[in-house]
Structures are given as structure tokens and as C-alpha cells.
Input
Amino acid sequence: MNATSKDYSVFDRFNFERKPVGVKFLPFKPEGIKRATKKVAFCEMFNESLDSGPFYVQKEDFICVETLILGMEDPEPVLVSGAAGGEAGLFKELRANRRIYQFIPKMMKGSVNYVAFSPIDQLTFDPDVLVITADNMDQARNILRAEGYSSGNIWSAKGSPIIACSFLYIYPVLSGKINYTVTGLHMGMRAIKASLPEGLFIISIPWNLLPTVMDNLKDENLYQDWESANREEHFEKFHAHCDDLRKQMPNYQ
Output
């Protein structure tokens, strides 16, 4: 497990109530990190690490569908048939529940044996995905803008009412794209009363985009306040700006 060499201080300006958490998927047991001492659902583990400090989990520590999405076990028929969710009323019919398993991101079988979690200020490894819990819209907007600010890429959200953990941790790693959700949307997290209030943005940044995001977060222009006194003032400024640009472009000469 490679030690982290990144400077994460750029996130300090946000004063998050809950620190970002790094997550890493490993074939080998991590050194220098303790094993989890209590069992919680996979979707809760990033938040749990804020209280317990860095830890890792292995197959015996899971209590939900983690072994399926981590590629540790073959799919269990009672799950992938849709019978479990269909009979429980999570979906109108079992075929609807069955279909969703075609879209659930999963690690390749045998590729992951351990998963490590650590608050950002205690990281000793280079995370595969950084999970950020934004307390308000300003924080969420600036984090989501930070990658597209230099690339022009658009953001999008992927998820489902069940197996939130797969889209939280695994989808960003497999797709290489940022993903986000809002607490309260996922039935499983609601059922277990995961220890997060509803309405918080959870943003997952994969390792390949993390340097770009952090670099752009250092640019003060990212934080400009675009709010106008009223809509008339906004459009007046916008049209005046476009008029100035038209005078400089040969297309309008």
C-alpha cells in the first residue's frame, strides 16, 4: 500500500463538519492500520472512520451485500433473482429488482480482499476514492465545479434506491468519474438509520481526478460570487459583457 504524498490542505478552507475520507481497495492486508473492531454496513464505514480512526475490513467483517459488489463471492440467487427486494416491497415486482443488478458496479472476482478507510488528516495511503460530505450547497457546488473548471467536463450522478455503497465507492473507481448523491435517497441507508442527517451531498472523487480537483480548488477565481442583486441586474451584466466581446471579434466586424 503506497504511502500518500499528496498535500490535502486545500480542503481545509471548507471547514467540513465531517472530514473527507479516503478509501482503498486492496488484494493484500494493509500494514500499519488496525482491523475494524465492530461491524457496520459498508455504506456507513466512511463515516465510522471519523470516530474510530483508520481501519480496514475483510470478508468476515461484512453484514450486507458487500461481498457481492467487492467480487469476493458469486452472486447469491436470492438477491440477483430479485426475490429479496421484490417480496419485501422495495420494488413493485421482482423483475424490477432483478434488473437493477445488471447496473450495480462490481469489482472483478478475486481482485479485492481488503478495504481500508481513513480520515483525510490521518491518511497513510493514496486513496482510490475520496469521499466528501458537503454540509451545504456552497461546498457541494465548488467541489463539483472543480474538475470541470479546467476540463469542461459535465457532472452527473449515478445511483439506485438500493446498494448505495456500490455507487458511493466502486462506481467512481471503475468509471474514473466523480459521482454524488444526497443522504436520504437510499432505502438501505434509511432502513439502518445510517448516522448522517438527510440532505447532505456526498461526493466521491476517484484517484485519477483528485489531482485536478485539488489543483483547481487552489484557484481563487473558482470561488467568485456570481449572485446578482436581481435577475435584471444579472442579464444586464451578461449582455454588456457579450457586447464588449463582440467588439473584439472579427465575426462581428
The longest strand covers residues 21-26. The two ends are 60 Å apart (CA to CA). The CA atoms of residues 124 and 225 lie 36 Å apart. Residues 9-252 form one domain.
